């Protein structure tokens, strides 16, 4: 059976789980805590990161975005990249925006300082990093609102990897209690739509031990 | 006519230039120095990064990797992603390796401290960062040698985006004079093959004012 190595703190692994569910592909989930050095996992992926997907025939795909493109090529229905090349380019641009810019400015500081350090008992959080992440998230929520003013979903009129990528990053920030939803009602409305997808539910009902998410984290009506 | 916004210090822009040349697509090159705030460029790409590709019909594609995937979809010959899905996944994995891991560990510290700071007169280089970049490059050259021991090119038996991505990052480190080629003869042999492609030549004959590259930078026999 197909296997996915993942952990709850990886936005890329979250994205692949949602993609597998949208494409109705079954898999066995294996939790790999990449902060603990595991030689057999490193042999499979020398970068030492999740997600890693192992197909039933043994084919091993590493790197979150490479897995997403692979799933789209091999299991094209339903499409998560959209139709013509121009739309696909827009989806990939937004995926890169969230995986690089949002990740650097928001996800990395907040997830490291507020979640990872507690999971690994890694010392006191750096309050400067937390403040920076909290300030930066506004720009991105404004950008989401700007896009949603013009389109039904982030990249056009259908749900794509752009929405899934953005929502997976935001779900982690929301787990940390740091998304100022009330200031960005349009972004909130879009996120409520993503949250209500059955593919997204499993992410919302899991806890990242020993941290409890805020009450609204799993609520569809938040 | 097709236009490409780029500058010499961007590994992603270098990659797109090589890809356009491999696919024999003409373009007008526009140098955009992204460290100078240019409102009309920011309107085109709010991330403020090169490369940006504008097709003759006005279609604008931003993000280096989104451009590469777009070129492969619209101008598939010659392919730079390879054949079956498993090989394409391997190409994308290696592209992500160099664009994320190599970039963070080697390109960013060395390009910023040794090249960018001189270009923008941005103060004294941080020697700790330079030492870190110089130490890290060995791991990656060993990884290239390991791959080339098993394959003709990095991802398989043909030149792909994996080779182009790796070589574009290395070309910048080589410009700074910081690739220890003599310690890694197999990686050097592979780089000599990339260097000899006509698509790569223009990168090697340009200078990034006011910095002169070391003598061997453009030599095919280095």
TrEMBL record, chains A, B:
Lineage: superkingdom: Bacteria
Alphabetically ordered keywords of this record: Transferase
GO BP, one annotated term: glutathione metabolic process
A GO term, aspect molecular function: glutathione transferase activity
Residue span, GST C-terminal domain: 84-217
PANTHER family referenced in this protein's UniProt entry, alphabetically: GLUTATHIONE S TRANSFERASE D10, ISOFORM A-RELATED
Lineage: Bacteria, Pseudomonadati, Pseudomonadota, Alphaproteobacteria, Rhodospirillales
GST N-terminal domain ranges (all copies): 1-79
Assembly: Homodimer.
The protein's name in its UniProt record: Glutathione S-transferase-like
Provenance organism: Rhodospirillum rubrum (strain ATCC 11170 / ATH 1.1.1 / DSM 467 / LMG 4362 / NCIMB 8255 / S1)
This protein's record includes keyword Transferase: yes
Enzyme Commission number, as recorded: 2.5.1.18
SUPFAM superfamilies in the record: GST C-terminal domain-like, Thioredoxin-like
Pfam families the record matches: GST_C_2, GST_N_2
């Amino acid at each position: 059976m197909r296997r996915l190595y993942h952990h709850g703190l990886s936005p890329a692994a979250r994205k692949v789980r949602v993609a597998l569910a949208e494409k109705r592909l079954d898999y066995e989930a294996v939790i790999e805590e990449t902060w603990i050095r595991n030689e057999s996992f490193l042999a499979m992926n020398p970068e030492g990161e999740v997600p890693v997907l192992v197909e039933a025939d043994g084919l091993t795909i590493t790197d979150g975005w490479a897995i997403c493109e692979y799933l789209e090529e091999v299991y094209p229905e339903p499409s998560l990249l959209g139709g013509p090349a121009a739309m696909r380019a827009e989806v990939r641009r937004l995926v890169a925006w969230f995986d690089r810019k949002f990740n650097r400015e928001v996800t990395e500081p907040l997830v490291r300082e507020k979640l990872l350090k507690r999971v690994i008992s890694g010392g006191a959080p750096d309050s400067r990093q937390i403040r920076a992440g909290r300030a930066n998230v506004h720009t991105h929520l404004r950008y989401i609102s700007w896009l949603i003013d013009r389109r039904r979903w982030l990249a056009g009129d259908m749900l794509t990897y752009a929405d899934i990528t953005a929502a997976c990053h935001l779900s982690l920030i929301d787990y940390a209690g740091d998304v100022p939803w009330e200031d960005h009602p349009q972004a909130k409305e879009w996120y409520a739509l993503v949250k209500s997808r059955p593919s997204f539910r499993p992410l919302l009902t899991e806890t990242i031990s020993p941290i409890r998410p805020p009450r609204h984290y799993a609520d569809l009506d938040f």
